[in-house]
Amino acid sequence: MLGLFSTLVLAAASVLQAEAALPSNCDRNATVAAGNTCDGISAQYNVSTYQLAAVNSGVIDPACDNLYVGEVICLGLTGQDCQTTYVAQSGDTCVGIAGFYNISENTLLTNNPNLNQICTNLYPNEVLCVSSTIYVNLTQSA
Ligand SMILES: *[C@@H]1O[C@H](CO)[C@@H](O)[C@H](O)[C@H]1NC(C)=O
Ligand SMILES: *[C@@H]1O[C@H](CO)[C@@H](O)[C@H](O)[C@H]1NC(C)=O
Ligand SMILES: *[C@@H]1O[C@H](CO)[C@@H](O)[C@H](O)[C@H]1NC(C)=O
Ligand SMILES: *[C@@H]1O[C@H](CO)[C@@H](O)[C@H](O)[C@H]1NC(C)=O
After folding, report:
1. How far is CA 39 from CA 1, 26, 92, 111, 141, in A?
2. Closest alpha carbon to 27 in 72, 73, 75, 59
3. pTM of the entire structure?
4. What is the pLDDT along the chain (142 residues), one digit of tens a residue?
5. How remote is the CA of residue 46 from the centroid of ligand 2, in Å?
6. For residue 25, which ligand has an atom nearest its CA?
7. CB 21 near ligand 1, within 6 Å
8. How far is residue 54 CA from its own chain's centroid?
9. In 3-state terms, what secondary structure has residue 59?
């Protein structure tokens, strides 16, 4: 009897947890489909690699190996949602990308804090925020 009761409590708790998964200041979301990767989702929905990770911190692992089909993930936070993005290609440089979008390299690096200061860790298929607006606060609201 006690065992059944604990099972019900656990089931109720996990339903609450699933419903509470998206931050209350999430302004757009997507449902994970079979074969999705984080960078694939980022490219599809115009979300930077950094932003997708930041707004789902604590939900999606840093290695992005725990996505599951049907999972609803947040794509951006209200007022802090960069939707001007570029998918990096082989041979790209930060200087070149910044020049193409007419933004300073400093703006590019500020909006993509996952890049190192000399941009040597840029990789093909990484999605970058290339907006001239600075998005500084990707704090999730409870
Ligand atoms: C996802 O976004 C849609 C609107 O596009 C909204 O109706 C839905 O409630 C959102 N899902 C969650 C879990 O917040
Ligand atoms: C993503 O951005 C590209 C280029 O600006 C645009 O053509 C496309 O419609 C955007 N896609 C979405 C889902 O917003
Ligand atoms: C590039 O941006 C600057 C302001 O940051 C603006 O003055 C200039 O006109 C822009 N150039 C082009 C080609 O859009
Ligand atoms: C960042 O955003 C959170 C959630 O919206 C807010 O509570 C916090 O005050 C903001 N911090 C700054 C420095 O703007």
Report:
1. 47, 19, 17, 17, 24
2. 75
3. 0.82
4. 555 555 544 444 444 444 447 999 999 999 999 999 999 999 999 999 999 999 999 999 999 999 999 999 999 999 999 999 999 999 999 999 999 999 999 999 999 999 999 999 999 999 999 999 999 777 767 6
5. 6
6. 4
7. no
8. 6
9. coil
